[in-house]
Design goal:
Elements (H helix, E strand, L loop, with lengths): L4 E4 L4 H14 L2 E4 L6 H6 L5 E4 L7 H9 L4 E4 L9 H7 L2 E3 L6 H15 L2 H9 L16 E5 L3 H10 L5 E5 L10 E2 L2 H7 L2 E4 L13 H6 L4 E5 L8 H10 L2 E6 L23 H6 L3 E3 L8 H21 L4
Parallel strand pairs: 1-2, 1-3, 3-4, 4-5, 6-7, 6-9, 7-8, 9-10, 10-11, 11-12
Helix pairs in contact: 1-12, 3-4, 5-7
């Protein structure tokens, strides 16, 4: 039997290098293209039953129809989240969609970094130093004196809780899933928002969690509280967040993701500033820290994502005879 074959769409150069290194070892014939998956790119790509897409590729009903016609039967998204994929349309087209689950450490580490930077007013300090102002500025707070609320206790949320244990802070958690044996006090979301000095989000984005943190939730948060989001931008009503930061109700925000980031994050927009309803206002705020969806962006994550992608293809082909 010939080796299973996969077409990898939207493949960055370092991803392509990793696929080229791992695919032969696992017995998969991988073809990489930098073009994102689309009806046009399907015309020039090899017609393999298995493909992989990046988390920035939007897959809706028309594209799934084209994928089915092209013979695609299995898709691996190189992400944990499925929010960019119409799963109902995939089922209608008879296409199996899988994600990759990589170790949570990179995102958990980054979350703690953003949290510490926010409570120590690091953005304002670095900005002042860049302008040769070496005064210490506003005093920060010790994390051990604060209560941190973790919303969502999956792999990443639990890894964040484990790291927080080393700082001696009080930890609250709210989770719809199974309440794992994490070192936190589990409470309803409303109570977590009311009691926490820092709130960090680690739930998937779907219809039920869109704007999970909206105007009411933000109003319920403590005066001067900090919001950290390394999940998905759509978890937060950005307009309500910006208003709360500008009014002083919230003390800060550290955001690795924002609503409407597509076409902005992962691009150099220095020559053509992005047209975004709230990004410019966020960037003007000294207590808002923005990074371009890079919490996951580590060499460990790259290796594990590529390996899991290839193994998903292998598993699918081994359990499905060739047409």
């Amino acid at each position: 039997m010939t080796n299973p074959a996969m077409t990898v769409f939207g493949c960055e150069p370092d991803e392509a290098d990793m696929f080229a290194a791992l695919a032969p070892r696992l017995g998969v014939a991988a073809t990489m293209t930098g073009a994102p998956v689309s009806e046009a790119s399907l015309l020039t790509a090899p017609r393999n039953r298995c493909i992989s897409v990046g988390h920035k590729s939007e897959l809706g009903r028309p594209l799934f129809r084209a994928l089915a016609v092209a013979g695609v039967r299995h898709i691996t998204t190189r992400s944990i989240g499925f929010d960019h994929i119409d799963l109902a349309a995939a089922r209608e087209a008879g296409i199996v969609v899988e994600n990759v689950v990589y170790p949570p450490d990179g995102v958990a580490d980054y979350t703690l970094m953003l949290m510490l930077m926010a409570v120590r007013n690091t953005r304002a300090t670095i900005g002042a130093v860049a302008n040769l102002d070496f005064r210490p500025g506003v005093r920060g707070r010790d994390l051990r004196d604060m209560t941190v609320g973790v919303v969502g206790v999956g792999n990443i949320g639990e890894a964040v809780i484990r790291r927080l244990a080393g700082f001696g802070c009080s930890v609250l958690a709210a989770s719809k899933g199974q309440q794992v044996a994490a070192a936190a006090e589990f409470v309803p979301l409303a109570e977590l928002l009311r009691r926490s000095d820092v709130v960090t989000l680690h739930v998937p984005l779907d219809a039920g969690t869109h704007h999970l943190i909206g105007p009411g939730e933000i109003a319920a948060m403590r005066q001067g509280a900090i919001l950290v989001n390394t999940g998905r931008g759509g978890l937060v009503d950005t307009g309500a967040l910006v208003a709360a930061l500008e009014s002083g109700h919230l003390g800060g925000a550290a955001l690795d993701v924002i609503e409407g980031e597509d076409g902005i994050f992962y691009h150099d927009r220095s020559a053509r500033p992005p047209d975004h309803p709230f990004l410019e206002r966020l960037l003007r705020l000294p207590n808002a820290l923005i990074t371009p969806h890079t919490a996951y962006y580590t060499t460990r994550q790259l290796h594990d994502t590529v390996e899991r992608t290839l193994r998903n293809c292998l598993s699918f082909e081994r359990s499905n005879t060739y047409a």
